[in-house]
Amino acid sequence: MSDNIFEEYKDYYHVRAERYANNPNYRNSYEAEKNLRDAFLSCTVMEEFRTKIGNLNQKCATALTKDKYLMEQLFYKKLEETVRVNASNRILVKVDQYENVSDLITMVNEELNKNNIEISMDEANRQFHYDWGLIDNVEIYENAVVPNEYKHDMAESVNLFKESIRENVTRLEENNSHWQKGWKLTPDIITEHRHGRLLPYKDEHIAEQLKKYKSITNR
Predict the structure, then answer these.
(1) Cα angle vertex 35, ends 33, 39, to 5°?
(2) Distance separating alpha carbons of residues 169 and 153, to the nearest angstrom
(3) For residue 168, which of 149, 190, 187, 182 has the smallest C-alpha distance?
(4) DSSP three-state, residue 20
């Protein structure tokens, strides 16, 4: 072991703190790391740190967690991701309650897992996006001008397209009920920014298509 190990540790704790200096995204981490560094620098011998470290390491983990989810919260709010931001919101409410790192990690993982289900249930409503072509087919075949001998076939095709749309919804609801009891498709939710931004159509076209979809699916 180096004869200068005590001095090397001083440098180590100083560098740990200064890597966050002047970075507004890591204000909490900087303060926590400075407190840890100052506690070490106040020691006259290495062994003295045992009585001074207390829970300062744990507070560094809490501070870093807080900074991470403050950044994520801001990011999702800017994108109007009102469901994805839920994990950050809940973690930030709880984070200061934890001093034990293992408990903190458990809480964060639980909230992330919960949010993953929320996201999946929310984005499942994009079945509307996937069924867009089928809705178009319904309109095309319903309004096609064809000789009389083909009208029956066209009507049959319309029924098949509609049935396919309804079956897609039924399967989706059955599958999602395993994750969220009683989950039902909510077509109107796709007008919210996080869903609507994925559709390369004008608002009035989306509204028109959505009306047809709701009529077909009875949702």
Answers:
(1) 115
(2) 25
(3) 187
(4) coil
pTM above 0.85, yes or no: yes
pLDDT in tens, the chain (219 residues): 455 899 999 999 999 999 999 999 999 999 999 999 999 999 999 899 999 998 999 999 999 999 999 999 999 999 999 999 999 999 999 999 998 999 999 999 999 999 999 999 999 999 999 999 999 999 999 999 999 999 999 999 999 999 999 999 999 999 999 999 999 999 999 999 999 999 999 999 999 999 999 999 999
Task: Give the closest residue to 24 by CA, choosing from 74, 62, 59.
Answer: 74
Distances (CA, A) of 65 to 62, 68, 88, 99: 5, 5, 10, 12
